[in-house]
Amino acid sequence: MGAKGSARSGGKGGGLLVAGTTSDAGKSVVTAGICRWLAREGISVAPFKAQNMSLNSFVTRDGAEIGRAQAMQAAAARVEPSALMNPVLLKPGSDRTSQVVLMGRAVGEMSARGYFGNHHDGTYGRREELLEPVVACLEELRRTHDAVVCEGAGSPAEINLRRTDIVNMGLARAARLPVLVVGDIDRGGVFASLFGTTALLAEEDQALLAGYLVNKFRGDVSLLEPGLEMLRKLTGRSTYGVLPFRHGLGIDEEDGLRVSLRGTVRESEVAAPHGADVLRVAVLPVPLMSNFTDVDALAAEPGVVVRFCDRPEELADADLVVVPGTRGTVRALEWLRARGLADALARRAAEGRPVLGICGGYQVLGERIEDDVESRAGTVDALGLLPLRVRFAREKTLARPEGTALDEAVEGYEIHHGVADVRGGEPFLGDGCRVGSVWGTHWHGSLESDAFRRAFLRRVAADAGRAFVPAPDTSFGALREEQLDRLGDLVEEHADTAELLRLIEEGAPEGLPFVGPGAPL
């Protein structure tokens, strides 16, 4: 392969697994950064995550559903996303159950006990059985790319799950991948976390753990170096880089309440408006909120302040209220009513103040929901703000629609079980509709279309009585590319890229020492 590599001419590409001491240690960001660095070096690279648990998903061009993080990592690698990059996606529906999506298609709901294979007879089932097809997807990517950068999940030291693991050390062992463990020093305890993660692994797994990467460091790195040297002496493993803390570098999050491109919801930190006024957007954090990344494009606009609000009084000064998608439409409806937000939305509609519902948020604004699939609640009265009736179908709609709205070209993607029966209003984005200042659509991602977003915000500003003018040159795509380049810069400037490349090409070094006590497989 080599730096400034060439296109593949056959054979098997290199690989690397980026694991982490905890969830949110920075695995997704580091994976994306390595992908962008390799792509800029002329190396054909693809991302991979064997199993992802997330309510933020994306639809590939061939109609497969994968995690949004893997779609953005594919953008970092400058390749088209595919189901091969995320063969297993779990979409939580409650604390105990998730929808299982295999190779981009939903195959049903499963309990955690059923999925993790904890059977009464002591045998292991579904999750363990997925290892072979997961490895086959990885090997196909390695066959067609010079390198594949894999992202782990949670921590590789979750020893209670090791026997059925397909995403961390189970994958590394099956595919002979070197492992880089990321630790978030901003949380504190990074040395204990890195050492403890290593020591809890079985000896066979430790043989693949090549070293560490420290993430989110603030200050003078020379002060950290004595600790890194002590860690090397304790474990026999080097640290491949110390990445500094940077605001606003999260790619499309798996879960959370953060507007990722701007990295802020504070009005004082928002770019100055192009016109006289700012525009305030309130997003309702409904239960099982999904694809809340839709509002990132709003936050990218200078002068647009995006906040997550869960109390009626917080909506008083909002110029636009967004009801985002959800994996629990009926549960979200109950939550809106219990918190008094349903009444607040009704008052806004009566006063002609803008509301936008997206996917599940669109469905709750309708008249009625018939759900024998998601919640199995049967027929439920919705908020009655749009002339819409929704029936949940067992087959999920997965699409990448394109069209025109507000006289501008727009594209998006659809992920929903609900089938809309629209009985009035003005058509809006596919099977969506608008009545007065209340808008609704099943299309995720539509606000990423720059001209359409500006046209929509002009309508919102007019209805809200704000002298807000969208900036004429804001490009969401360019901002996203800039962000991915910043991730690539972090890796290129603060990691030992020569050694990273050696790991990817040659695998873990031979003779890595065992750090006791280790855990039995």
UniProtKB/TrEMBL annotation:
Signal peptide limits: none
InterPro entries xref list: Class_I_gatase-like, CobQ/CobB/MinD/ParA_Nub-bd_dom, CobQ_GATase1, CobQ_N, CobQ_synth, GATase_3, P-loop_NTPase
Keyword Calcium: no
Residues in CobQ/CobB/MinD/ParA nucleotide binding domain copies: 17-256
Domain CobB/CobQ-like glutamine amidotransferase span(s) in chain numbering: 280-451
Function: Catalyzes amidations at positions B, D, E, and G on adenosylcobyrinic A,C-diamide. NH(2) groups are provided by glutamine, and one molecule of ATP is hydrogenolyzed for each amidation.
Record's protein name: Cobyric acid synthase
Taxonomic lineage from the root: Bacteria, Bacillati, Actinomycetota, Actinomycetes, Kitasatosporales
Gene that encodes the chain: cobQ
